């Protein structure tokens, strides 16, 4: 194991909070195990660790080790670390992000990976969008499809609107809650920049009630 990652893992495990752990596991329907370190606490602890140990020299290697731990907080921390260097990664890094997306996926990790890591990477390498978007949106994995729908979430007025609408259309008939939610969320986010386009899309398509409600939440 990477020495830096090993020290960090031990550091956080020694500060686990059993009371918070129970609440966090219940919130996530007892699907995953936690240390009981909520985000503000986890970030303070990481700053303390960095003050004593310095910043990681090989962020990707450390993140890989953290993501392999069963406790969910290590995955959040790995994503935080990777987000700080997302603009410095080679093209091949997208395959690693894809691997992370399908590793015990749930909204808590997938949404961060989609909007920050995948979204940031594809801004850096836009020529990769077509192939990966097609693979994800045409596939059967709902979490990769959710990623395709959400990766432009932070693109603001630089959003490829035709792609956004096409991705939503592809999964309009899905009864998957997390797909319906993603469609509504992506449309609501883009409505901040072109409300008329989103309204026209919603009114001309048969969206699931959840998707429609989310898309029009701020109208």
Automatic annotation (TrEMBL):
It holds the Pfam family DNA_alkylation. Gene3D superfamilies: 1.25.10.90. It comes from Listeria riparia FSL S10-1204. InterPro entries: ARM-type_fold, DNA_alkylation. This is DNA alkylation repair protein. It comes from the Bacteria. SUPFAM superfamilies: ARM repeat (SSF48371).
